[in-house]
Amino acid sequence: MSGINYSEKIPNNVHLDSDRTLQRALEHWQPHFLQWWHEMGPTDFESADVYLRTAISVDAQGWAHYGAVHMPEYRWGIFLADPVPERKIGFGDAMGQPVWQQVPGEYRSTLRRLIVTQGDTEPASVEQQRMLGHACPSLYDLRNLFQVNVEEGRHLWAMVYLLHAYFGRDGREEAEELLARHSGDADKPRILTTFNEPMRDWLSFFCFTYFTDRDGKYQLKSFAESAFDPLSRTCRFMLTEEAHHMFVGETGISRVVKRTLEVMKELGTDDPARIRAHGAIDLPTLQRYLNYWCSSSLDLFGSEISSNSAQNFASGMKGRPDETQYEDHVLRDKTLKLVMPDGEQEVPVLNALNEVMRESYLKDCEIGLKRWNRQIERAGHALRLSLPSSRFRRSIGPWAGLPVDPQGRLIEKSLYEKNLGSWIPSAADQAFIQSLMRKVIEPGKMAAWIAPPERGINSLPVEYEYVKLH
Ligand SMILES: [Fe+2]
Ligand SMILES: [Fe+2]
């Protein structure tokens, strides 16, 4: 079951050849996907040989093959984690009952919406990142960008498979729509705001892979718990791929910090202007980028109080990330205290699950912060990077639009407006970061604003020519 069949047009481990109708429908969608990749995927690198990993098995051990690939020839396909025998629903009102192999009629439209919303983010991020190749800080980074891009493309396949296989004509229509909406498009934008934000520089890319791909990880973890077994199995395998995306973000920011500390030492100063003049990114600017992308990603979890989240959980459609770590999996009659703009409020936990997820996400975000702050501490500096409060700069939920500072305090609107430019990147910050974005493509060379990685990909040296440009 674990092996992937590459002899077919669409690589898969779901015995696609035994369902001719489904196979034909997906084969009909495939050229549309390739056309989308050609028009909306990474610009101008179609003939480059990129050292990419391709899934060959869904085993936790040794699941990938590495080799030079032209991106348009990447073998996108349908890979589900192996089924868990006798799997039972692990939470909600139907806990203990067998999981669903088909979509129950009463949950059909909700499940379809959840899958479409998740699916929409995958091609959206490829679109957001399509110009970045022209400003890569190294060939190593260029390869990582493209690895993330092809895997987000594969994640689209993962969701489209579910739509085609389990949602009939509606599902096929949704699959077409996933290619018709575009990031930042005035008429047909992507569904979620963060996935319409422009991404013009690599500092934003590293923040995006750190914060926004981590939101993806948490969404996938909650779907991995789903009673709808095909969704659970799809998401479990996507998580294996997703880990690399967050690695790119965490190590990317860590290398920026390392380089900045080197420059600070060399110049004997922490003066941002002098650090910038030396071509490195001062830490206060990095902090503003962290504030921006973290707060933008926090909205992706939805409102603090949500009857939809209660319904999704009670029905078994969507659990909490790592559901087994909790003691109570039903959550009837449980309450939770939430801090609201007008004081503390006690709400049923079932209605506060978005907030529960957001809190565990923020804990996960702290891991990188600790690592970066250790680097700063070891270099003998007092500054510490931090995450903004989950109430800062929200546009969804009870804190939406309120003047809250990064520490979470409600402040005067005039004070907020005066200071916002020092909390998130100003136009001048963006122009400075943009001025650093120069393509570096000599094997082993790095742009001046980032340190080399500690090691290369798949035991190859950092100097390896990870992308051969033609
Ligand atoms: Fe993804
Ligand atoms: Fe991702």
CATH homologous superfamily (4th level) name: Ribonucleotide Reductase, subunit A
List the secondary-structure elements in sequence, H or E. Answer: HEEHHHHHHHHEEHHHE
Return Rg in Å: 23 Å
**What fraction, in percent, of the residue positions are helical?**
40-55%
Helical run tally: 12
Distance between the termini: 39 Å
Second-tier CATH architecture: Orthogonal Bundle
- Give the oligomeric state of the chains in this entry, treating copies of one chain as homo and distinct chains as hetero: single chain
The CATH C-level class name: Mainly Alpha
Overall number of domains: 1
CATH fold title = Ribonucleotide Reductase, subunit A
Quote the beta fraction.
Answer: 5-15%
Question: In which order are the strands of the major sheet placed?
Answer: 2-1-5
Structure characterization notes:
By secondary structure, the protein is mainly alpha-helical. It has a single domain (16-468), classed as Orthogonal Bundle (Ribonucleotide Reductase, subunit A). Helix content is 47%, strand content 6%. It contains twelve helices and five strands. The chain has a three-stranded antiparallel sheet with strand order 2-1-5. The chain has a two-stranded antiparallel ribbon with strand order 3-4. The mean pLDDT is 96. Bound molecules: fe (ii) ion (2 copies). One fe (ii) ion (FE2) is lined by residues 122, 152, 155, 216, 242.
